[in-house]
TrEMBL record, chain A:
This is Menaquinone reductase, iron-sulfur cluster-binding subunit. Residues 11-41, 103-132 form the 4Fe-4S ferredoxin-type domain. InterPro entries: 4Fe4S_Fe-S-bd, 4Fe4S_Fe_S_CS, ET_IronSulfur_Cluster-Binding, Menaquinone_reductase_QrcC. The lineage of its organism: Bacteria, Pseudomonadati, Thermodesulfobacteriota, Desulfobacteria, Desulfobacterales. The keyword Acyltransferase does not apply. CDD domains: PsrB. Keywords: 4Fe-4S, Iron, Iron-sulfur, Metal-binding.
TrEMBL record, chain B:
The keyword Iron-sulfur applies. GO terms for molecular function: 4 iron, 4 sulfur cluster binding; metal ion binding; molybdopterin cofactor binding; oxidoreductase activity. It comes from Desulfonema magnum. It comes from the Bacteria. InterPro entries: Asp_de-COase-like_dom_sf (IPR009010), Molybdopterin-Qrc_component (IPR053557), MoPterin_dinucl-bd_dom (IPR006657), Mopterin_OxRdtase (IPR006656), Mopterin_OxRdtase_4Fe-4S_dom (IPR006963), Prok_Mopterin_Oxidored (IPR050612). The gene is qrcB. SMART domains: Molybdop_Fe4S4. This is Menaquinone reductase, molybdopterin-binding-like subunit.
Automatic annotation (TrEMBL), chain C:
It comes from Desulfonema magnum. This is Menaquinone reductase, multiheme cytochrome c subunit. The gene is qrcA. The keyword Amino-acid biosynthesis does not apply. One of its GO terms (molecular function) is electron transfer activity. Keywords: Electron transport, Heme, Iron, Membrane, Metal-binding, Transmembrane, Transmembrane helix, Transport.
């Protein structure tokens, strides 16, 4: 048997907030791809499962100086220090894990027993708990994607960077006798869906991938970097107040308006 | 032997020890844990072979190329089709949620006949033969003395299905074929009056580098949304500029380089103010203005009333800002001015369209790279005129019920917005039978209450809807269409595209229910009516009709999904066929009204004392507000500052909220009333809305559809009435006076 | 050293209890044996229900007729996914008409081929929904034999009884025929530990931060 010797990858995302229109196509692409359930009332956003949630930021200024910006928030797939993401460190069930090979934080629903420590630990609110069993209206279960398992009541779920697409791309590569994937072979559903081309996805370690250069943009930032979560999702915004909002104003606070996040 | 406590305990201990030596406890623990991980009621999606079927989305006039992923015979996801003109590889949020419409529990699964009262929801399933003969029977009876009393309502008049319905009405003897109005009608009229051509407006936005938008939701669904998103991103990449003129900080305004919050209703004045500066500073395109336009002097004279100072007073925008903006616009190499509020679902003021279009003319960006093009209507439908019998001949001569084409509104083809008022004010409804296809007038027309009242006066309503929408609920007979992914349909040029394009929507899977293509249903009705009507439909079925109509394009359409016509920028030479043969800044059609200023603005309905605030609507990509109701995925993405529980949330400026007689905190409930209606709302304090105004999202407040949509929020159309545009007769209302009162406890 | 008094007292106390120390041991043994019997013999019978395949199938016979071994029927699609149990379309080429004398063959043609119905085969190695198993990674990537996990099924002349776990709903072959979970061959069990065992041995994807072993998102979805 051959051993796999592929260079460690670090999949990550760069989201251009100047291009993001807040249309929500990424959210629906994500829900359709990942069998995310829906309830009759989803207006309580605390229990509304959205692996990718588009937040609306406002600069807090009065009319007509008010400004808004949308910020799509998938799981940040934090690397922390050597893969010790906040959620991975606290999971008592080994249900969430960090892989050094892909840099992806996994969540195994059947392993999870619903203690929700990870949700408390995640500074990005990227994790969601299934308070109810998912229910599809009669006939609508037909559109479930077989590549992603359906979750049950009592477990935590979150964005997987569409890991099943990585698995599928690897299968095709094996079939064709390859080990390595091309950049376009593995793309998340949201990246593929974004009509504005605001999301770029790829291997942050690979100089041939677009994200490698984009993450070095002078306007690039990550959310709450100070916490040392070392997230793999970068944002770009030419607007200073947006970049400041990304770090909650706690360091280097400058008065450019009070920032609040819409829930 | 006596079994006492000790021996029993011994037995139990022995049993326990023995059990521990068997696999039972370990195996049982393992199995039970697996059982709890995989509840039998959690669905397990069936795996299978993956395939992709390309088609064209018909959920809105944008007509994007889609690629549907199937697992065996299930459709599991919709993605964009790479290479399709405009949308190239992407679909919008609604397009991607389309499978929830296909598999929706609110599909009409078989022909239905109403058995209870109108709107009561009591139906009897009937066979297709019975349904067709019932409809044909009713129509046949009516034809004897009142053939023009049959009306048809469609979404858009383009494409074979609406044209088949129009043909049915013509052969039957009725002129009353009506379309759901939109900004496309206003643009078509603008081109007719200023260019003298019958065409639709195409925007070469990809080649523009300065986009001046008069309230158009460039990134909120205006034009063809996916294409506009791409153009917006490209504009940013090439450091182009976008300026948004709008009273509310919409997404487009927030993403624009400059947001100009004019007082709503004064957009026309603002456009004329810009024109004033451009002419005054002599920044206009001399070649175009001198050689290809007429009435420039009259236009210039009229503009005297629109100096920056005056315009500043009316619009609330600083005079200097107006001058700077006008200079920047005229100074750009490819400036483009567009209008049509929000997604362009309402036609708006024709004067506003003409004023904005005059800006394009001033900078010579008409029929040129990066400008507005007059795009000829698709010409593939070349059916011979039907032979009309006596009844039909007489019938089509009758005046239209909606007044379109009358002396008052000679240029407009269809005025659906006037129909409810016409019916309500008549003793007997001029419409005795109504056929509705691809439209949901009971939801989408302004003043829903009046529309419902009008529908009550129509004795016979037939719906062709595949979904149980508001209009279908109110019908007498439903002849359900296939869902859009189950049928063939031609897709004419996407709205706003500058080159003619024909797309073909193909069935992605076999029909799930006992439904029939509306094209087939129309042909069947025609055949059942016999005589000349039947003879006007020589096709065996719709597919034959469609393939014959498309002729030599058919094979390419089936293969590639679209046929793009080689079409270059039309240029100026011979492009204008107005009475003067030139581009007309001031059309005679408008000038004819002597008692009105040539460019008028629309004031909102209601008196200021009773209704101190003004309510305006806004459009969102996450809320479908056409004839399609929101699928559950879309509603899930709606923010809680738009919908909270079942309450719609209206935006109000914190300063305005503070002025009220009672305290209005963020999220507080209130009653919102306008001269047309009253609804319960919650308020959201937003700095992005002009003080004195309130904004409400369109697309909520459905009474039909499932529990994921019905009863959520309020329908903006319940609160607003139509305002007839003096030139076009189309609806030009952009807002209505309103007030907020305390919620009665 | 004990005195006779002591002995007497002890004996008395035993007699005062249940008459004989033998009884206690006897009951202990009865309990022990009964539980051993029920645990080893009765429990497996109760735990699994036996289901028959819709029709019988002779793997050995087919193996003689095809060129590419298992992959002739259990093939990979072009996207690298594994097609699994053959669909009717693949059988139809040869089985349009009844071949041979077997009653199963006749049923197959009459009930399925002519009616165009897929055969509802029961799949012995069906994994839970949370498992992502890539056949192509093992067969093409690692060059493994089908038999390593599936055993010599290609040599079988008929299908064995399908035993379904009444609690989990899964096939008995996942846990293995041996109720104690002991395996002699690599193909005797298909539990996660069996996958992990081989992955650890071969150092496949040992990239987990939590365990230092295989990362979860290698075999799970």
């Amino acid at each position: 048997m051959k051993k796999e010797h592929s260079k460690a990858k670090k999949y990550g995302m760069v989201i251009d907030l100047d291009k993001c229109t807040g249309c929500g196509a990424c959210m629906v692409a994500c829900m359709a791809e990942n069998n995310v359930p829906f309830k009759k009332d989803e207006s309580n956003k605390l229990d509304s499962i959205t692996w990718l949630r588009v937040f609306k930021l406002t600069n807090g200024k009065s009319f007509p100086d008010a400004d808004t910006c949308y910020l799509p928030r998938p799981c940040m797939h934090c690397e922390g220090e050597h893969g010790h993401a906040p959620c991975v460190s606290v999971c008592p069930a080994t249900a969430t894990d960090y892989s050094h090979e892909t840099g992806i934080v996994s969540q195994i629903y059947t392993r999870c027993f619903g203690c929700r420590y990870c949700m408390a630990a995640c500074p990005y609110h990227a994790r969601y708990f299934n308070w109810w069993d998912p229910v599809w209206p009669e006939g609508m279960e037909k559109l479930l994607n077989p590549n992603v398992s359906v979750r049950m009541r009592g477990v935590v779920e979150k964005c997987s960077f569409c890991f099943h697409r990585y698995q599928a791309a690897k299968e095709k590569a094996y079939y064709e006798g390859r080990q390595e994937l091309e950049e376009d072979e593995y793309q998340t559903a949201c990246t593929q869906a974004c009509p504005a081309g605001a999301i770029t996805f790829g291997d942050l370690n690979n100089p041939k991938h677009a994200v490698y250069e984009l993450k070095k943009d002078k306007n690039a930032f990550r959310l709450l970097e100070r916490l040392g979560t070392n997230p793999k999702v970068y944002y770009i915004s030419t607007r200073k107040w947006v970049r400041q909002a990304g770090d909650n104003y706690l360091e280097g606070y400058e008065t450019e308006g009070k920032v609040k996040k819409h829930r | 032997m006596k079994i006492d406590r000790r021996s029993f305990l011994s037995f139990v201990i022995g049993g326990a020890a023995g059990t521990a030596l068997t696999p039972l406890p370990w195996k049982l623990t393992d199995d039970l844990s697996i059982w709890t991980q995989m509840w039998p009621w959690t669905p397990v999606p069936q795996d299978g072979e993956v395939s992709y079927v390309n088609s064209v989305c018909t959920l809105c006039p944008a007509g994007c190329g889609i690629s549907v992923r199937k697992v065996d015979d299930r459709a599991v996801k919709i993605e964009g089709m790479a290479g399709y003109p405009g949308s190239n590889g992407n679909a919008c949020i609604l397009g991607m949620a389309g499978l929830q419409l296909l598999y929706s529990p609110t599909r009409v699964k078989t022909p239905l006949k109403r058995v209870g009262n109108r709107g009561e929801g009591k139906w009897k399933a009937i066979s297709w033969d019975d349904a067709i003969s019932e409809v044909a029977g009713k129509l046949g009876e009516l034809r004897k003395d009142q053939s023009s009393a049959v009306a048809g309502i469609v979404g858009s008049d383009r494409g074979t299905v609406p044209q088949l319905l129009k043909r049915l009405l013509t052969a039957y003897g009725s002129p009353n074929f009506m379309c759901s109005p939109s900004m496309d009608d206003s643009y078509a009229l603008t081109l007719k009056l200023m260019h003298g051509v019958s065409a639709s407006a195409g925007f070469d936005i990809e080649n523009a580098n300065f986009v001046l938008s008069f309230g158009s939701g460039i990134i909120e669904g205006w034009g063809s949304s996916v294409r506009m998103f791409k153009a917006n991103s490209a504009l940013k990449d090439k450091k182009g500029k976008m300026v948004q003129i709008e009273p509310r900080l919409s997404n487009t305004a927030a993403k624009a380089d400059q947001w100009v919050p004019v007082r709503p209703g004064t957009e026309t004045v603002f456009a004329l103010g810009l024109a004033y500066v451009i002419i005054q500073e002599s920044l206009y395109n001399k070649d175009f203005v001198e050689n290809y336009t007429a009435e420039f002097d009259a236009f210039r004279q009229m503009l005297d009333a629109y100096s920056p100072d005056k315009v500043a007073e009316i619009t609330g925008i600083d005079a200097e800002a107006i001058t700077t903006l006008a200079k920047a616009f005229a100074g750009a190499s490819n400036p483009l001015a567009v209008c049509g509020r929000g997604q362009g679902t309402t036609p708006g003021s024709l004067h506003e369209f003409m004023a904005v279009h005059a800006l394009n003319a001033l900078v010579g960006n008409i029929n040129k790279k990066g400008g507005v093009w007059a795009v000829p209507a698709p010409d593939y439908i070349q059916w011979p005129d039907p032979e009309l019998d006596d009844i039909a001949q007489k019938g089509i001569q009758t005046a239209r019920a909606d007044g379109a084409g009358s002396e008052k509104y000679p240029h407009t083809a269809s005025l659906l917005n006037r129909l409810p008022e016409v019916i309500n004010s008549a003793a007997q409804s001029p419409v005795q039978a109504l056929l509705v296809s691809g439209a949901n007038p009971l939801y989408a027309l302004p003043d829903s209450k009046a529309v419902k009242k009008a529908f009550d006066k129509i004795p016979f309503i037939v719906s062709f809807s595949s979904q149980m929408d508001e209009t279908a609920q109110y019908a007498d007979i439903i002849l359900p269409n296939h869902a859009y992914l189950e049928r063939y349909q031609d897709v004419p040029t996407p709205t706003g595209l500058q080159t003619p394009l024909t797309g073909l929507s193909k069935p992605v899977l076999d029909p799930l229910f006992d439904t029939k293509h509306t094209g087939d249903a129309i042909i069947m009705i025609a055949k059942a009516l016999e005589g000349n009507i039947a003879a006007a439909f020589p096709w065996d079925n719709y597919e034959v009709c469609l393939s014959e109509t498309l002729g030599d394009k058919w094979d390419a359409l089936v293969e590639n999904g679209f046929v793009a016509q080689d079409f270059q920028e039309p240029g100026w030479e011979g492009a204008f066929t107005t009475p003067s043969g030139k581009f007309e800044f001031v059309s005679k059609a408008c000038a004819a009204e002597s008692d009105k200023p040539v460019f008028s603005s629309v004031t909102p309905e209601g008196d200021e004392k009773t209704y101190p605030l003004i309510l305006i609507p806004y459009d969102s990509m996450r809320l479908s507000n056409g004839f399609i109701g929101n699928p559950p995925f879309l509603t899930k993405t709606v923010e809680d500052t738009v919908l909270k529980g079942n309450d719609i949330v209206v935006e109000i400026n914190p300063a305005t909220a503070k002025d009220r007689l009672f305290s209005l905190n963020d999220g507080a409930p209130a009653m919102l009333s306008t001269p047309r209606g009253e609804v319960r709302v919650r308020v959201h304090l937003s700095d992005g809305i002009m003080p004195g105004f309130m904004a409400m999202a369109r697309g909520l407040g459905h009474t039909a559809y499932d529990d994921y949509l019905a009863g959520k929020g309020a329908n903006f159309n319940e609160l607003i009435g139509p305002a007839e545009d003096p030139v076009s007769g189309l609806d030009s209302a952009w807002g209505i006076r309103a007030k907020l009162t305390n919620v009665p406890i | 050293m004990s005195t006779s008094d002591d002995l007497k007292t002890k004996k008395d106390s035993v007699e005062a209890g249940d008459g004989s120390g033998g009884f206690i041991i006897l009951f202990f043994i009865i309990g022990l044996v009964a539980s051993l019997i029920s645990g080893w013999l009765l429990f497996p019978k109760l735990l699994y229900s036996e289901k028959k395949q819709p029709i019988d199938f002779n793997h050995a016979l087919h193996m003689e007729l095809v060129d590419e071994g298992c992959e002739s029927c259990h093939f990979f699609r072009e996207d690298g996914t594994y097609a699994g149990v053959p669909k009717l379309a693949q059988c139809i080429d040869c089985h349009e008409e009844v071949q041979g004398e077997s009653p199963d063959e006749a049923t197959f043609v009459e009930e399925y081929v002519t009616k165009g119905r897929e055969v509802p085969w029961l799949i012995y190695s069906q994994q839970p929904d949370c498992v992502f198993f890539s056949h192509v990674a093992h067969v093409k990537g690692a060059g493994m034999d089908c038999a390593t996990c599936h055993g010599p099924i290609g040599e079988s002349t008929s299908l064995k009884v399908y035993e379904e776990n009444r609690i989990t709903g899964y096939s008995r072959d996942i846990w293995g025929k041996n109720i104690s979970g002991i395996k002699k061959h690599t193909w005797d069990r298909m539990k996660m530990d069996d996958c992990a065992e081989c992955h650890v041995k071969n150092g496949v994807n040992q990239s987990s931060v939590q365990t230092g072993k295989g990362a979860c998102f290698v075999c799970h979805k």
